[in-house]
Automatic annotation (TrEMBL):
<dbReference type="GO" id="GO:0005737">
    <property type="term" value="C:cytoplasm"/>
</dbReference>
<feature type="cross-link" description="5-imidazolinone (Ala-Gly)">
    <location>
        <begin position="141"/>
        <end position="143"/>
    </location>
</feature>
<dbReference type="InterPro" id="IPR022313">
    <property type="entry name" value="Phe/His_NH3-lyase_AS"/>
</dbReference>
<dbReference type="GO" id="GO:0004397">
    <property type="term" value="F:histidine ammonia-lyase activity"/>
</dbReference>
<dbReference type="InterPro" id="IPR008948">
    <property type="entry name" value="L-Aspartase-like"/>
</dbReference>
<feature type="modified residue" description="2,3-didehydroalanine (Ser)">
    <location>
        <position position="142"/>
    </location>
</feature>
<comment type="similarity">
    <text>Belongs to the PAL/histidase family.</text>
</comment>
<dbReference type="GO" id="GO:0019556">
    <property type="term" value="P:L-histidine catabolic process to glutamate and formamide"/>
</dbReference>
<keyword id="KW-0369">Histidine metabolism</keyword>
<protein>
    <recommendedName>
        <fullName>Histidine ammonia-lyase</fullName>
        <ecNumber>4.3.1.3</ecNumber>
    </recommendedName>
</protein>
<dbReference type="GO" id="GO:0019557">
    <property type="term" value="P:L-histidine catabolic process to glutamate and formate"/>
</dbReference>
<dbReference type="InterPro" id="IPR001106">
    <property type="entry name" value="Aromatic_Lyase"/>
</dbReference>
<comment type="pathway">
    <text>Amino-acid degradation; L-histidine degradation into L-glutamate; N-formimidoyl-L-glutamate from L-histidine: step 1/3.</text>
</comment>
<dbReference type="Pfam" id="PF00221">
    <property type="entry name" value="Lyase_aromatic"/>
</dbReference>
<keyword id="KW-0456">Lyase</keyword>
<dbReference type="InterPro" id="IPR024083">
    <property type="entry name" value="Fumarase/histidase_N"/>
</dbReference>
<keyword id="KW-0963">Cytoplasm</keyword>
Amino acid sequence: MIRLTGRNLTFDEVNRVVFKQENVGLSDQTHARLQANRDTVEALLHEKKTMYGINTGFGKFSDVIIEDKDLDDLQLNLIHSHACGVGRPFSEKISRTMLLLRANALSQGYSGVRPLLVNQLVDFINAGIHPVIPEKGSLGASGDLAPLSHLTLALLGEEEVFYQGKRVTASNALNEAGLEPLQLKAKEGLALINGTQAMTAVGVVSYLEMEKLLHQSEHIAAMTLEGLQGIMDAFDENLHQVRGHVEQSETAERIRHILQDSKLTTKQGEIRVQDAYSLRCIPQVFGACWQTVNYAKEKLETEINAVTDNPLIFSEQEKVISGGNFHGQPIAFAMDFIKLGIAETANISERRIERLVNPQLNDLPPFLSPNPGLESGAMIMQYSAASLVSENKTLAHPASVDSIPSSANQEDHVSMGTIAARHALEMLQNTRRVIAIELICAMQAVEYRGVELMASSTRELYERARNIVPSITKDRVFSTDIEKLADWLKNHEESEVRQIISEDRREVYERS
């Protein structure tokens, strides 16, 4: 069980909770901190101190004072009115991540909520109750108001959730899990929805998927090098050290180790002097992609342990401070940046696909067809890759450069961070299909060269992938192959990726 403190949640722990269904809990110290913070709110209410969103209206209504008898209704009205999300729902994994991140943020004890409320979030996680949350409707400042309102509705026993593989009413799921609906008290509705947990949850899932996808892309690119008899001199350690980008050197090192015992790669001058950029510049391009991933990781690691609601209650000083920690600009920038890395991973992969299928660029059968002319082989797979790459280019437009004023111009600058994160995740799905196509083509190419001559590492990847997609012996519906292989790349365990790498090479991955 992972104990939430709000201060030291790691990506590994998020991965264990979200993807491996590990339970979470709160320590006694966290309970005590939450209760002390709640006691401060109650004391300040008793003193009739004016506090935004606690005994005032919201947004443009911040100057409207609310009577004591209406404080609970104020919070419920907030949730009902702000639940304006539209579109298809986020996946269960993202919904689960949102629950985890919101519970962790509130656990720091600056939001003025009761321990009971955080326990409700924890109970949802442990029971596998995942709110149905429409993915569109957030501006990314005043936090992710619409998505988090839908999350809160489920805590109250309203609307729908995913539970035990079905989409059911929240009330039924609570009843089956033996839980009671939450009833909001002063400040608590605002504390639940004023935060960046939707964009951050999508960002965390995107980061975890992109990290795996980049490792897979390197491995698939290595197989393509074999299929095209690529020149290994371009991956020489000295060459990359003198440029100085760490990620570039690490990529080159991994490629060298993957292909260490290959009999299909060549040296400069042996067949040709230089390869095309899509082969020769794999370390430079992938290294830069890793830089976008590392930047996003740094900002997301900060945000998953951040307090992002408003106002915040500092018990020791008995201060209530209104500010803007809910503004998603750091995550908006991070997700727009990682989108560049995602786009370029697909771009360079599609160029390698072209080199694998174009008879003017290699000595392989045209379009890797078993019967060129009568059968088209991989011709249209390259079309699909090109289409996905082009779509990624439109999605890569930075969402963070846009802003539309809201709440009668009180909230006059917003981040659009959730849009940036959603686009990153969509681009990842496109890119995974592109590298699946590259893998199909690379496997076909190495079969022509001689599978027995492959490196042991790429040979194992070949054998695993061949269990998913058979060799092309005649034309068939390749859409099925692409989707099956993309699904395998997405869902098989990261441990399987590492098992493909022989023991003497695995340390290179773990070091980087």
